[in-house]
Amino acid sequence: MQFCNYTDAGPILIFVRSCEWKIGEFEIFIFLEKIVKIMKGSRYLFLIAVLALALACNQHKENPAAKGFNAALSDARAVEIADEVMEAMGGRDAWEQTRYLSWNFFGSRSHHWDKKNGDIRIESKKDDFTVLMNIHTMKGKLKKDGEVLTHRDSLSKYLQMGKEAWINDAYWLVMPYKLKDSGVTLKYKGEGTTESGALADVLELTFEGVGITPENKYDVYVDKKTRLVSQWAFYTKKSDSEPRFITPWDNYKQYGKIQLSSGRGKYELTEIAAPAQLDQSLFEDF
Fold it and tell me: Which residue range is the domain that position 121 belongs to?
């Protein structure tokens, strides 16, 4: 991540490392230098231009960690990189303003998710069931083998299956936005190289008391140039020395206001969308 850092040789002191930018220091320097030439050295006009830049800088939104994020045990460099990833993906504002997401998980399950309310619709092709539920209240409806089921045991079983499927499948889609989630500890492992040969910063993600498999561990590779997640390595247990699998994160595209990746090596997330609206009947009617 680059920082504003420019001081005029004259008596005008420009802000020093006061904000974060997506562009580098050199570009800022050249831009300000051009302003000076255009304004023919006018200190007052130059100061106005710099103050305008400072205002723009101050509009940069923070990326606060979720309540329960293990900041005490996380590395400062790892947290900084997580913030860079958020910016590269579209920024915190864009993520928060994205209400609806839809995708198909490797041809097995299709999802529609209302991030604001927690409503989801999951259609499992493999197990031939459709669940309409709220992930917070765990209330919902079930259609299995073409029949609406209301028996408490069946409903409870499939609602739990639905939530667990959503937890897993959503993480494969939006993990880069969840690097500072509750229960997460982030460690910086240093520089590494992806299987495709690209240089990356490597973060280690571990969990405590969250999700359905808190014993898992991930190494997340953040591309040196794009600051996007370019690969992850999955470990079944924190103590494992070798990953169970490694897959790339590629084929990034813009969906609404955010960036999402669909490529996972030989697998592909499909039907990805971030629509401004979804018909409410998707979450209410089979």
Answer: 76-283
